[in-house]
């Protein structure tokens, strides 16, 4: 009975120590996350093995795990850039991105947990300034927004691909021009629209006039051909046929063949 307390004390101590070690060693990686293992006595950041995936992991208490979100994320950026003619333009954009899963260890080792601020955003700003500087304010305001968006995406992607970042999309949210420039562009666009509408009406009227001319010419050509084909003999034959048809009517009449002034049959009587 005297030995029990002496035995129980070390057991309790070992149990408590085990609980502490397990609590320090247990790591849970959440959904959409991955862990980079840092081995204090084993060469530092592990880059030659896949990162720790979602779920429960036991890690030696002297090691560390850095958790990263690996699902697609979005970052917003407001930028002041210059157009091709030196005007100040405000550009609002957002990027869809995620760290490259297989290279998460290298990203942590070379760029760190704040890689968005260190790498992604500076690259987006540089690409936006380079791309916007090729266009005029009129192009930025109207027809070239999709082209600008695509070019910023391509230039940013080309750089961050080598920095262990996967860029999925870049979106231009808004382009703000100086008020005076914006008003001038809107007036110009309105005038161009009115000019296009006027040209359309002119073209439509010209097509209608051409249609009328073609129809009139067709009728004139048809009448000319018909007149050329109606010889005296054909006209007499047509007159004889018409007279004979008329003579068949039930009314009494006298038909004198060849007595007309033009040699056609003469019909006498109408009763």
Automatic annotation (TrEMBL):
<feature type="domain" description="Band 7">
    <location>
        <begin position="24"/>
        <end position="189"/>
    </location>
</feature>
<keyword id="KW-1133">Transmembrane helix</keyword>
<keyword id="KW-0472">Membrane</keyword>
<dbReference type="GO" id="GO:0016020">
    <property type="term" value="C:membrane"/>
</dbReference>
<keyword id="KW-0378">Hydrolase</keyword>
<dbReference type="InterPro" id="IPR001107">
    <property type="entry name" value="Band_7"/>
</dbReference>
<dbReference type="InterPro" id="IPR036013">
    <property type="entry name" value="Band_7/SPFH_dom_sf"/>
</dbReference>
<dbReference type="Pfam" id="PF01145">
    <property type="entry name" value="Band_7"/>
</dbReference>
<feature type="transmembrane region" description="Helical">
    <location>
        <begin position="7"/>
        <end position="27"/>
    </location>
</feature>
<keyword id="KW-0645">Protease</keyword>
<dbReference type="InterPro" id="IPR000163">
    <property type="entry name" value="Prohibitin"/>
</dbReference>
<keyword id="KW-0812">Transmembrane</keyword>
<dbReference type="GO" id="GO:0008233">
    <property type="term" value="F:peptidase activity"/>
</dbReference>
<protein>
    <submittedName>
        <fullName>Membrane protease subunit stomatin/prohibitin-like protein</fullName>
    </submittedName>
</protein>
<dbReference type="GO" id="GO:0006508">
    <property type="term" value="P:proteolysis"/>
</dbReference>
């Amino acid at each position: 009975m005297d030995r029990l307390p002496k035995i129980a004390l070390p057991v309790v101590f070992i149990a408590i120590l085990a609980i502490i070690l397990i609590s320090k060693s247990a790591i849970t990686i959440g959904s959409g996350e991955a862990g980079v293992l840092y081995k204090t006595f084993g060469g530092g950041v592990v880059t030659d093995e896949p990162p720790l995936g979602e779920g429960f992991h036991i890690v030696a208490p002297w090691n560390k795990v850095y958790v990263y979100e690996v699902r697609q994320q979005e970052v917003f950026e407001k930028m002041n850039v210059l157009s091709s003619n030196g005007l100040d333009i405000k550009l609002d954009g957002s990027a869809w991105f995620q760290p490259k899963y297989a290279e998460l260890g290298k990203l942590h080792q070379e760029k760190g947990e704040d890689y968005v601020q260190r790498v992604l955003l500076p690259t987006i700003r540089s690409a936006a300034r380079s791309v916007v500087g090729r266009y005029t304010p009129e192009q930025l305001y109207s027809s070239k927004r999709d082209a600008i968006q695509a070019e910023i995406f391509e230039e940013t992607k080309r750089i961050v691909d080598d920095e262990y970042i996967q860029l999925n999309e870049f979106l231009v949210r808004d382009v703000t021009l100086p008020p005076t420039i914006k008003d001038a562009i809107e007036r110009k666009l309105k005038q161009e629209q009115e000019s296009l509408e006027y040209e359309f009406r002119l073209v439509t009227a010209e097509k209608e006039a051409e249609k009328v001319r073609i129809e009139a010419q067709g009728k004139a050509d048809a009448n000319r051909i018909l007149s050329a084909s109606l010889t005296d003999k054909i006209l007499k034959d047509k007159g004889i046929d018409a007279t004979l048809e008329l003579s068949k009517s039930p009314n009494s009449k006298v038909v004198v063949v060849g007595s007309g002034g033009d040699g056609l049959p003469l019909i006498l009587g109408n009763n």
